[in-house]
Specification:
The chain is of the alpha/beta class and about 220 residues long. The chain has seven helices and ten strands. Strands 6-5-4-9-7-10-8 form a seven-stranded parallel beta sheet, sandwiched between helices. Strand 4, helix 4 and strand 5 form a beta-alpha-beta unit. The chain is elongated, with a radius of gyration of 20 Å.
Length: about 220
């Protein structure tokens, strides 16, 4: 891994980052002002950048972890990154991306704030229906987040058994119609008050995961 630090970074921050990077075996390079801005596709470079190897995690490697958070067709990379960060913060076992944005794309990584490299993230490219089948065969309890019509979220049982939480995309919901799947599927809806019609999918994920983790 190589770490690049803007020479205009304040000396204390420069030294702190350099020490941590070198302790992990990385090479540290000081670059001229403006170089990181030109290299980055973000509107504002933060003064530090690194080359890293993207972790490759298979679905087999995350089976047995719980709860699993399945992101089905989520298009907004910022939302996807926020779900990864929230999942890591609340103690989820892993995240599975099924279609939608790349969890290791620049904006998703930024939204995850580093959680992408501490929480296992697997990808599934064979459709939601087959993923649910694989999870069910592995003994997972399947919980699907719905914008309306599901059981109230305050009645959601904690994930004392292996559980998978399925989250659909922001506008279209799930990519597959699994109404007639024949499997035991729980559907849950975050109950809203007043005139609020919906929540950001990452916020909904946080609420549901908190309920699933149970009391301390």
């Amino acid at each position: 891994m190589d770490v690049f630090l803007d020479e205009t970074l304040d000396p204390q921050s420069f030294e702190q980052i350099a020490v941590v990077a070198q302790a992990s075996g990385a090479q540290v390079f000081s670059v001229a002002a403006g170089v990181l801005q030109r290299l980055s596709d973000q509107e504002r470079a933060e003064g530090a950048a690194a080359t890293v190897r993207i972790p490759e995690t298979t679905i087999e490697e995350v089976l047995g972890q719980s709860p699993l958070v399945v992101c089905d067709g989520i298009q907004n990379p910022g939302n996807l990154g926020a779900i990864v960060r929230t999942s890591a913060a609340l103690g989820a076992g892993a995240v599975i991306g099924s279609g939608g944005s790349d969890p290791f794309g620049p904006k998703a990584l930024r939204g995850a704030a580093g959680a992408s490299f501490v929480l296992p993230i697997a990808t599934w490219n064979q459709g939601l229906e087959s993923l649910i089948q694989a999870l069910a065969q592995a003994g997972y309890r399947i919980v699907i987040a719905e914008t309306r019509g599901g059981a109230p979220h305050r009645r959601l049982r904690p994930a004392y058994e292996t559980t998978a939480l399925i989250l659909g995309s922001e506008g279209k919901g799930l990519t597959s119609n699994i109404e007639n799947s024949g499997r035991a599927i729980e559907r849950v809806t975050v109950q809203l008050h007043g005139r609020v019609e919906s929540l950001n999918v990452a916020v909904a994920a946080g609420i549901l995961l908190d309920r699933m983790m149970g009391p301390d």
